[in-house]
Amino acid sequence: MSASGSKSSAATKRPAPRGARFWLAHLPSVLFLIAFALFYASYTPYRVVGENLLPAGDFEVDPTTPDSPWKERHGEKTRWEPGAGREGSGAIRLEERLGWLQFIVENPRDYEAFVVDGHMKADSIVLGERHWRVARILLFFSQADGRARWDWPSEVCRFEGSVDWTHCRTGFTVPDFATKAHLLLQNSAAEGVAWADDVKLYPAELKGSRYVAWTVLAFGWLALFVQTFVSIRLWRRRYGVFVIVFAVAIVVGVAAPANSFHAALDVPLEAYETVKNAALASEEPEPPRKAPQAAPMPATEAPAADTPPPPPLTEEEKAAREAERIRREEEAAKRKAEEEKRQRDEERKRAIEREALMHRVQKTGHMVLFALLAVFCFASARRAWISRRWALLGTLPALMLFAAATELLQLLIEQRTPRVGDWVLDVLGALAGLVLAAGFHRLLRRSTPEASAAE
Ligand SMILES: [Ca+2]
Question: What's the whole-number mean pLDDT along residues 135-149?
Answer without folding.
Answer: 91
